Amino acid sequence: MSKRYITYGGEAMLHAVLENGTRISMADKWHENELNDLRKQQRFICPICQERVILKLGTKRQWHFSHEQNHSCRIWLEPESAYHLQGKLDIYKWLRKQGVKAGLEVYLPVIQQRPDVICKLNGKLYAIEYQCSSLSEERFLDRTNGYNRVGIIPIWILGGNRLRRKQGVHFQIQGFEWLAAPFSPHHGNQKFLIYFCPETKRWARLDRITSYSSNRAIASLSVMKYNSRISVEELIAPTDHLPFNMSAWLKQKKKWRTQPMQPYSSKSYKTFSKWLYIHRIPPGLFPAEAGWFLPTQHEIVTSPHIWQSFLLIQCFLPKKKNERITLEELAYSLTDFIMKGFMVSRENFKQSMNKFVSELVYEYAELLTTFHILKKINSSHYVYQNEISILSTYDEAIKRDQFLSKLKHNTPNLTSI
């Protein structure tokens, strides 16, 4: 991606240097008359491009520095709102109050990036990016990979303005936000997101994020006061193990069965519906063994009831009981679905397709073993033990979903899935 440069004076910074090299920070305590006197006596310089910047002392925004009109700084900078400026300043002060060594807007010349906050915790360097506006997935990966190249761990904190609850435990998560959600270091297959709102002075965290479509997920929301006793470690590495919300998942699966097809449905859903009709299956009566969450579902845009139905009908419906089936066969079919656009993965997995497909078919084969559809012979071979469940009424399908949910929940090796 080619770099973009700011060609107007809209971006804001909380730091500048004087001509003698003295660093001036709006994070420090200043009186307005002190800064007005300093502005009359000194020139303020951008610490990155060494060009002049203007000190702005308004009443509606956090005091800040800005480049002169039509000036281009050497690094990509986003125009920052008052919300963003106040938020990153609050995060910086919160870290300092906790005794964490932190720097605000520190420029890293090796990678030509300037994180909002950089800090050192337990001997490791972290770059905190406070993101309140939309960001392309490509730009997100560029910035994340830049930090990784120099051994700095990126932490993405989203603005509270990006927290979108749709209903109950259902939340909207879009684009780069999926990439910003790390896996819990204590519970490897559980993703979470951190939010901060400078207006309400509240932290928020979505835990146990369970993706079920391109921009929807089931999750557990917790809200904490800015000055609460929660530690940095607790915020960025949650230790609580939250159980899978099977009740909410079954309600979503019932919705997939009963909702009519919308005129704006995705290509995957339209193809899915046609595929089922060809096999004389109404879309709402897709196999009960389809539509289950797996760890790798985080990396898929397509809903699980769609791609799992494709796989069951393509690979299992033509087979007879006791026939063998291999992971390689499942992987081949799944790759074919992806290549034809029937199934879509998220941006960060497009570079590692083989690994992604292998993990997904293994997880699904293990689940089908729990459902007694497959019997495992060895690490890559299975036997088609019992036929998949294609039922004739919605009530039967929903009862079968409930029965399978108990098998999934009560199987030790699948309780974390």
| Strands ordered across the widest β-sheet | 6-7-8-9-12-13-14-11-10
Radius of gyration from the CA trace? 26 Å
Indicate the percent of residues in helices: 25-40%
List low-pLDDT spans. Answer: 1-10
Q: How many structural domains in the coordinates? A: 3
The separation of the N and C termini measures 36 Å
Total DSSP helices: 11
What is the multimeric organization of the chains shown? single chain
Given the helix and strand composition, which structural class is it?
alpha+beta
The coarse overall form would be: elongated
Description of the molecule:
- With 417 residues, this protein is α+β, with helices and mostly antiparallel strands.
- It has three domains: 12-67, no CATH class; 82-242, Trna Endonuclease, Chain: A, domain 1; 247-410, no CATH class.
- The chain is 32% helix and 21% strand.
- It has helices spanning 32-41, 82-97, 137-149, 176-180, 232-236, 246-258, 267-278, 304-315, 327-339, 353-370, 394-409, and strands at 15-18, 23-25, 44-45, 52-56, 64-67, 101-104, 117-121, 124-131, 153-159, 164-167, 170-172, 191-197, 202-211, 216-225, 324-326, 374-376, 381-384.
- The strands form three sheets. Strands 6-7-8-9-12-13-14-11-10 form a nine-stranded mixed beta sheet. A five-stranded antiparallel beta sheet has the order 2-1-3-4-5, with no helix packed on it. Strands 15-17-16 form a three-stranded antiparallel beta sheet.
- Helix 8 (304-315) packs across helix 9 (327-339).
- The chain is elongated.
- The two termini are 36 Å apart.
- The relative contact order is 0.08.
